[in-house]
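new request in #modeling-help
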Amino acid sequence: MYFYCISGLSVESEIALPGRIAADRSGGAADVRIRSGRVPEFLEGAIAAAPTWQMTDRFFVLRIPGVARFLLCDGDTILFEPAPGTPVADLAIFLLGTVFGVLLHQRKYVVLHASAVCVAGRAVLFCGASGAGKSTIAAALGRCGYPLVTDDVCAVTLDRVPVIHPDGRQLKLWSEAIDALDLAAARHGPVRQCLEKYYVQPGFAHPAPAPVGAIYVLREPRPPATFGIEPLNPADSAAILHEQAYRRRLVAQMGQTALYFRAAIAIANAAGVFYLTRAMDFADMDRVVALLEDHWRAIGLEARAA
Amino acid sequence: MIGPVWLASYPKSGNTWFRIILANLSRDEPADINTLRSADWTAGNRAPFDAMLLIPSALLTHDEADGLRPRVHEALVREAADAASDGMAPSFVKVHDAYTLTPNGEPLLGGIAAGAILIVRDPRDVAPSIASHSRTTIDQAIAILNDRDGGICTGTRGVSQQFRQRLLDWSGHAASWIDQRDIPVHVARYEDLLADPVHVFMAAMAFAGRPADLDQVRRAIGHSAFPALQAQERASGFRERPRPGDALGGPFFRQGQAGAWRDTLTETQVAAIEQAHGTMMRRLGYELSRPAGGGMGG
């Protein structure tokens, strides 16, 4: 059995989850248990569904044809059933992504689709759709000494200030990015045997929760947007952050729209929300890092963590 | 519930122009080329798949993703039908894929589709257009046209915002659409659209079950004239260009001409295209510059 701390939850897992923050086996029961078991093809009485998933008030089934099925129960138990021939190591990427993300939704967490690094004790988030370059920017910043807070799944809790919870020490990068950022030495195993995407540990990780410092929504310089950083006004910030919810479709299906709007407003109030517009070109990465460091000085985040 | 009409074409064959005319149909002022909303979604785009299925398609192989794409098309149509007040108007969806079968043996683009408008263009004009768009040489562009396993976004070392789209070679692409028997297909030649835009466009709309008013079409075509599009691109750029923000590379809206290949291609290049695609070119009414079966030699 493996024990981890993921997004602020203690996790007990039958299979290894690469790059997660290991936790001591504690006396008490884990918040989340991950184990193998029989997973139904379909849920009876689903209240929402799509071709690959169904949900009820208590259960959620995710079906990845030819790979695995997952059953989530009550936000505390995850059962997995690999398809014949699927190596069990291939499941972790789905467990750590969609499955854990849905579990956080079941637990009424606010989850953003973002990667984050730590700058002077604060979490700086990069939001965007899959393929928008979140992990690549986090990796480039990791190489410059900014510790990783989270990759892809960004759990937020709202206390006095919004706090981001770390999910692990490794992020996921395509071989193209690994080569361009010269991170071959930091490369671990592939996320699936059949894909050229790998777990990568570009630098240190920040293992503790961090208050949110700034949020960047990534976009490409398609007209009328041009290279640079542009602040969003408070109303737009809240709307855009709501759009950056992880697996956003579930927010409405799970009746959490109001929660996300409240959270988006709290996050927008506590931290600046900005568009970061840059070409998706690895050759430009140094320029993007320099732009960000200048911006952090301008908005009062220290340029370098001690 | 009515499925989408695919706006199908090999790349650089007038798909964008057709969509701009569509976008201008219901407007008094010219549509901004950077806020086109004529296609409800683009079949090659990963985002609707990821949002619907909750699985990042990037974590699937190209073939695995293809296996699920028909399910996404069905689900998107169902949702659009639920959301639409009339529920009847077919939507137009841009697609570059050839008409192929998924690894499960089902048509990738059959199923719920109401039909397809296939826009074809003389491959001798497609080649220089690809070369300019993708910054290749014309010979490389011809190699793409002639590649039976051709496709876009086929890489496996990174992820593109689009799916791998199998194109086949130029002839194979056209044949895959014209010869399939699953859905009705209407062929519109780019050259005819240039020569007689009003009637060619109206025929396509009639096929799609959305007959358009003559005056409306005339105005839309006026707003979509190449000089107007070029002026818009010069003033504010075009967001559908590859590599946004890249100062290099020519404009997206180049010439909007038919037959420019005569001044662009060498005899050898013309021969290479005609030899590979002569049969389909004749079938689509493109006259060959040399007799059938002519070799590469002079």
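bot summary: The longest strand of chain B covers residues 115-120.
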